[in-house]
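#lab-general

N.A. 3:47 PM
ok so I finally got the sequence cleaned up, no stray characters, all 304 residues accounted for. can someone with queue access submit it? mine expired

B.Y. 3:52 PM
send it over

N.A. 3:53 PM
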Amino acid sequence: MRRVLFCVAGLGLALVGRPTETPAEVVFEATSPYHNIRVEDRGDLRVLCFDNTEESRMSRRNPLQGHFEYTEYFHLPWLWHTQMSRVLMIGLGGGSTQRAYAHYYPDVGVETVEIDPLVVQVARDYFGFKESPTQRVVVQDGRMHLRRDRTVQDAILLDAYSENRYGAFVPYHLTTREFFELARQRLSTNGVLAFNVMGTFQGWRADILGSIYQTLTRVFPQVYMFPARSSLNVVVIAVNADRRLSRAELQQRAEGLIRSGRVRLPTFRERLAVLRTDPPPAFKQCQVLTDDFAPVDRMLSPDR
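B.Y. 4:20 PM
back already:
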């Protein structure tokens, strides 16, 4: 019997199907001020859980496999900035994106900001996250780090969901117009912001996607969306560019990046193919999120 369940994946919501329930061996468990953190081995799959949700996963035999699909959409900023050398990521989790960048783009400097020091320890001890001259981690709130550190970034990647009694939520201060204005100030001329949203285009969670889209369009000239096929994650990409690129132009850039060897992610073409060129249907009725009003936890609650 096929079992379907909802879980928070990589600090995003994933819809996962498993033919059978693999017995889980708990290899680590502890509680931090932010989460109950548990690491489970399910056969070859190692899974990171925050509270009662799956946050990240990887194959133990090949750490570049087994991850959630949506994390590969964090490679798409190459389409708008083809010479990236510096990337900031807010949210570490199990380090799926960081492992991939270290492997595929070893010359790109990636700085990760993670608020929970226990998450950093678990990523190092159980998920192969390795600090190096090109892979650094800072234990701090992401917005505070952006405010204090004026380093110019080629891309800023956001994957910073948490959980409370209402369910999964993204800290509201990372969703507002004021935050996005700060992020834009830290981006280079061709800089890209990529934001993982747990949302849908219709029905439940359409408000959160519509509001994030609406808010980003007040700050960035162009906004694109890439919905994952295997989960309810939508990676929204905002760019500092006056002209909007067509699907054909993006495909042409992708082919050039692949031919040159600059992008070596095997599924890069496949990830680009899900591009949504139309905005969320109801985004014009969705509110702009501000520091004064950003009820994102209510928008994400299944009981609203």
